[in-house]
Specification:
By secondary structure, this protein is α/β, with parallel strands linked by helices. It is 50% helix and 16% strand. It is built from ten helices and seven strands. It has a five-stranded parallel beta sheet. It has a two-stranded antiparallel ribbon with strand order 3-4. Strand 3 and strand 4 form a beta hairpin. It is globular. The protein starts with 5 loop residues before the first strand and ends with a helix.
C-alpha cells in the first residue's frame, strides 16, 4: 500500500494560501496542488464551448464528458483539458465573474473532488483550496486555515489583478481598471457564497491550525507551517 503525506491549506480568497502553499511545498519537497485552478479550468472550458451554465442538463453532460489529465511540472500538478494546457486565460475577468457560480454546483464539485483525490499518485502533496481539509482530505495529518482582514485581502487581490499580463482579448483591461472598492466588494460577496453554500461550505476543518496572515509576510506564514509540520 502506497504511503503519502498530505498538508491541506484552506481559506478565503486572497488570504495568501496559494503563494504560501507553493512555498511550503517547495520547502518540504512536496508537490503543490491548486484546487481553485481546477474550478477555473472547468469554468473557462464551459465558457469557451458556450455551455449554458444555468441549464442543469447541459452542464451535467459537459462535466461528464470533459477530458482531463494531470502531470507534474516544476513540482506542481498541472492540468491538460482536451489536449490543451490552459494558461493565464483561466485568471481572466471573464472567468472571475463566472467561477463562483460554477464552484457551488454539486456536479462540478464532485468532479473536482475526484480529480484531487486521484493526485495522491504523485506522492506527498500540499493542497490548497476551500474544502480540502473538510471534504477532500478530511483525514490529512496536517491541516491549516489561512485568513486575513478583508481590506488587506482586497489590497492583495487588487495588486495581483493590476500586475496581471494577459492578452488584450481576455479581460486584461477590465482587470487593470478595477477599483479597490470593487475588488473588496467582490471578495465580500465571494466570502458569503463560500460560507453559505449548502455543498461543502468554507469553514475551519476539525483539527486545523488557524493562521492569520494579516500582518505576516509569505515567508513568515510558510515558515510557521513548515515548522509546525516538521515539528510533529
Amino acid at each position: 500500500m502506497e504511503c503519502f503525506h498530505i498538508t491541506t491549506i484552506d481559506g478565503p480568497s486572497a488570504s495568501g494560501k496559494s503563494t504560501v502553499a507553493r512555498r511550503v511545498a517547495q520547502d518540504m519537497g512536496y508537490i503543490y496542488v491548486d484546487s481553485g485552478a481546477l474550478y477555473r479550468v472547468i469554468t473557462w472550458k464551459a465558457l469557451e464551448m458556450c455551455v449554458d451554465i444555468n441549464d442543469a442538463g447541459a452542464l451535467s453532460q459537459f462535466v461528464e464528458n470533459i477530458k482531463a489529465d494531470f502531470f507534474v511540472k516544476c513540482e506542481a500538478v498541472c492540468c491538460r483539458i482536451d489536449g490543451v494546457v490552459p494558461g493565464n486565460e483561466i485568471r481572466s475577468q471573464h472567468v472571475n465573474e463566472a467561477v463562483s457560480q460554477m464552484a457551488v454546483l454539486p456536479v462540478v464539485r464532485e468532479k473536482v473532488v475526484g480529480w484531487l483525490r486521484s493526485m495522491t499518485k504523485f506522492g506527498n502533496l500540499v493542497v490548497e483550496g476551500r474544502d480540502i481539509g473538510t471534504v477532500v482530505f478530511p483525514a490529512a495529518e496536517n491541516k491549516f486555515y489561512l485568513d486575513a482582514d478583508l481590506k488587506v485581502r482586497a489590497k492583495r487581490r487588487h495588486a495581483e489583478l493590476h500586475d496581471m499580463v494577459l492578452d488584450r482579448d481576455d479581460g486584461s483591461e477590465q482587470c487593470s481598471n478595477l477599483k479597490l472598492v470593487d475588488v473588496e466588494g467582490s471578495l465580500e460577496r465571494r466570502d458569503t457564497i463560500d460560507a453559505t453554500r449548502q455543498n461543502a461550505p468554507l469553514k475551519v476543518a476539525q483539527g486545523a491550525v488557524i493562521v492569520d496572515t494579516t500582518e505576516m509576510t509569505i515567508e513568515d506564514a510558510a515558515r510557521f507551517i513548515v515548522s509546525h509540520v516538521m515539528g510533529k
